[in-house]
Amino acid sequence: QEVWAKEQRKRTILRRLMTLYDQDSSGRLSRPQVEALLTDSNFGTPSGEPPNQEEVEFVMKSGDHGPEGPCLDELEHTVAQWTTYVTMRGKLDQEMKRFDISETGSLSREELRNFLTHLNDGTTVSDPEVDLVFQKADVLKNGKI
Predict the structure, then answer these.
(1) Rounded to the nearest 5°, which phi and psi values hold at 50?
(2) How does residue 64 score in pLDDT terms, banded at 50, 70 and 90?
(3) Are 115 and 107 in contact (CB under 8 A)?
(4) Furthest-apart CA atoms within the chain: distance in Å
(5) CA-closest candidate to residue 123, choices 113, 132, 131, 133
(6) pLDDT for 5-19, tens place per residue?
C-alpha cells in the first residue's frame, strides 16, 4: 500500500503541474509551456532564469513525445530528465571543460572517445562503441554532443 500511496502522490503532483502549465488545456505542454516549467524548476540558478534554447530543445527532443510536447503520462520523464540535468550541470560543465580540448563547447568523436575511456577506467573503447554513444547522445541530431 505504501508504494501505491507514493505513486498516487506523484500522479497528483504531475496532474497539478499539467494544470498549472497547460494554459491552453490541450493536454500537452507546448514549447513555451515547457520552457516556463523548466524556468520555474531551474534550481541552482537565480530565480526566474530561463534555460537556454539548446536546453529547451534537448528536453523537447529527448522525450518520448513528439514535437507537440509532453502529455500527462510523459511529464514525469520530462521533469526527471530536467531535474537530473540541473543537479548534474556543474559536474557536466567540469567534464566538458576537461575533455573539450578543441574548446568548441561540444565533444568531437575523438574527444568523446577520450571521455568514454576515462569513464572506462582507462580501457580504450572501440569505434562501434563510440559510434553508438555518439548516435544516442546526439539528441538534437546536429552532429554534436
Answers:
(1) -75, 155
(2) low
(3) yes
(4) 53
(5) 113
(6) 998 999 999 999 999
Query: What's the rounded Cα separation, in Å, for the pair 57 and 35?
Result: 9
**Beta-bridge partners for 71:** 28
70, three cell numbers: 509532453
pLDDT tier at 120, thresholds 50, 70, 90: very high
Nearest to 10 by CA among 110, 87, 2: 2
Grid coordinates of 98: 576537461
Higher pLDDT pick, 42 / 77: 77
| Chain centre distance of CA 56 | 8
Instruction: Give the model confidence (pLDDT) of 94-108 as tens digits.
Output: 999 999 999 998 898
The arithmetic mean of pLDDT across residues 101-120, rounded, is: 92
- 8 A C-beta contact, residue 122 and residue 132: no
Which residues, other chains included, contact 107 with Cβ-Cβ below 8 Å and sequence gap of 6+?
96, 99, 100, 115, 144, 145
* Strands of the chain, DSSP E: none
Q: Distance between terminal CA atoms of the chain?
A: 43
